[in-house]
Amino acid sequence: MTPTMTNSSNATDQTSVLVSVAWVHQQSNKILCVRTQGQDRFFIPGGKPEQGESLPEALVREVHEELGVRLRPETIQPLTVIQGPAYGRPHCTLLMHCFVAEPETVDFSAHAEIAELVWVDQHNKSLCAPAAIQLIDELAMFDTHNSDSIF
C-alpha cells in the first residue's frame, strides 16, 4: 500500500510516496548500478518492500532477485536516505533507504527484470536516474571530508 500525502490545500493535488531500499556496493571507487528492462536510466540495486517486510528483509530479497547475490544480513548497515522526485513517476516522491552490506559472493549478474549492470562514478553518473545521481554526489562529498569513506 502506497501512503499518500497532500502537498497543498487542494485535496485533489496529491503526491504519493514511494519507499524503497537500495544496496550501495562499491568497488574501485565506483558504485554498482542496474538498468531494468524498458528503462533508459540506471538505478541503485534494490526495490520496494512488500507488506510486512522490514527494510533489511526487502534489501536481501531484492538484491537476490536482481543480481542473484545473497547479502549477509548481519552486515547490513544503514548509509543514508535519499529523498526526491521518483524518476518516471509524476507526482511521486521517492524515499530511498540506502544500505551497505557484505555479499556472500562477489559473483553477480543481471537477473529477473535487470537488463544491464554498470559501475558508476562522477564521470558517468549522467547514465543514472536522479536519486542515484544524488547518492553518488552525496558519497563523493562525504569522501572529501572522510578518509574512511566508501567512495
Break the fold down into its secondary structure elements and pairings.
Blueprint: E1 4-6, E2 14-23, E3 26-27, E4 30-36, E5 46-47, H1 55-67, E6 77-85, E7 92-100, E8 114-120, H2 130-145
Parallel strand pairs: 2-7
Antiparallel strand pairs: 1-2, 2-5, 3-4, 4-8, 6-7
Descriptive overview:
The chain is α+β, with helices and mostly antiparallel strands and 151 residues long. The chain has one domain: Alpha-Beta Complex (Nucleoside Triphosphate Pyrophosphohydrolase). The chain is 19% helix and 32% strand. The chain has helices spanning 55-67, 130-145, and strands at residues 4-6, 14-23, 26-27, 30-36, 46-47, 77-85, 92-100, 114-120. The strands form two sheets. Strands 1, 2, 5, 6 and 7 form a five-stranded mixed sheet that branches. β6 (77-85) and β7 (92-100) form a beta hairpin. The radius of gyration is 16 Å and the shape is globular. Residues 1-12 and 147-151 have low confidence and may be disordered. It comes from Terasakiispira papahanaumokuakeensis. InterPro entries: NUDIX_hydrolase-like_dom_sf, NUDIX_hydrolase_CS, NUDIX_hydrolase_dom. This is Nudix hydrolase domain-containing protein.
